Amino acid sequence: MAFLSDTLARVKPSQTIAVTNKARELAATGRDVIGLGAGEPDFDTPQNIKDAAKRAIDEGRTKYTAVDGIPELKKAICAKFKRENGLDYTPAQVSVATGGKQILYNALMATLNPGDEVIIPAPYWVSYPDMVLLAGGTPVPVAAGIETDFKLTPAQLEAAITPKTKWFIFNSPSNPTGAGYTRDELKALTDVLMRHPQVWIMSDDMYEHLVFDDFEFTSPAQVEPGLYDRTLTCNGVSKAYAMTGWRIGYCAGPVELIKAMGTIQSQSTSNPCSVSQYAALEGLTGPQDFLATNRALFQRRRDLVVGMLNEAKGIVCPKPEGAFYVYPDISACIGKTSAGGASISDDEAFATALLEETGVAVVFGAAFGLSPNFRISYATSDEQLREACARIQGFCAGLS
């Protein structure tokens, strides 16, 4: 009898976490490493949010809470969805969990049966397929390449749907590409989904507030009210509020699904950290002016990185609409040899050689389901980004 579960054979560790850990290990040995793998803002949580957490501790709000969130936070989430997305939810339709990842995982665990299919546009966040596999479902990746600006077309979505399709996972702006769907592009997808009533929509809106230029964020149930009763609208405070370590995610959807997710959570983690919930409450109800300031900062960094990468030999880097990632194409680099003698057979080999020869850590495209590419998180200082991109330029110039 094997000791470890057979389930583990169906999943793999997160490559983004692996790259970040590798960069830290090299830095600990004295190497000059610039880590561009982690997807988290480099600035601190706003002071008013930290102060709210301290007050919660001082006031003794350190006990168990309701399994899926304190009433005050659920009420604030309902107000947020109404104010920012035009969506009406009641607290009974809201769930709060230990990060956005647990929200998605709970929903999949509560709904998937063996044979159920989940459509996932690729490139995708690394955890989507593995969470589907852990829940017993079958991920169905659909490639959306650079020729469509990394966006799924209605025809591709239509072709991927089968009688076994239970979920469509939608992420805009996207991790890893930063690609954002316009209202018209999203409406074209929702028109397809309206024709397939068995398909539910999991909308991962984590990067909602990180959009650039004149891009307007929209969410599926907002664009097509007819999908309201089969959409789980997911979000969290990690990215926009610089609260990655606080671990608070939330969602809203049909009451039956929310109850089922609560059952899963009651037998796994139980309630999210009480102090973090009060911090998130302040985040959603307190001053929001810093969002625009941070958005402008990220837009400047995006323009810096896109400009410098497009000057690198063999790299094509589209300009994303949001998030804090770029996903450059390196087709012209494959099959070459680095100055250090490494054979660049694929994007993983590119990323490995780049780290070993220049100290720049990126995540290779195969981890996100679309190659040959790599992902850069530009959630770090302009100085670090400028130096990293200069090293990438030098690395590419040395390929032969």
UniProtKB/TrEMBL annotation:
It comes from the Bacteria. CDD domains: AAT_like. Its EC number is 2.6.1.-. InterPro entries: Aminotransferase_I/II_large (IPR004839), AspAT/PAT-like (IPR050596), NHTrfase_class1_PyrdxlP-BS (IPR004838), PyrdxlP-dep_Trfase (IPR015424), PyrdxlP-dep_Trfase_major (IPR015421), PyrdxlP-dep_Trfase_small (IPR015422). Pfam families: Aminotran_1_2. SUPFAM superfamilies: PLP-dependent transferases. GO terms for biological process: amino acid metabolic process. Keywords: Aminotransferase, Pyridoxal phosphate, Transferase. One of its GO terms (molecular function) is pyridoxal phosphate binding. Its cofactor is pyridoxal 5'-phosphate. It catalyses: L-aspartate + 2-oxoglutarate = oxaloacetate + L-glutamate. Residues 32-392 form the Aminotransferase class I/classII large domain. Homodimer. Belongs to the class-I pyridoxal-phosphate-dependent aminotransferase family. This is Aminotransferase. It comes from Cereibacter changlensis JA139.
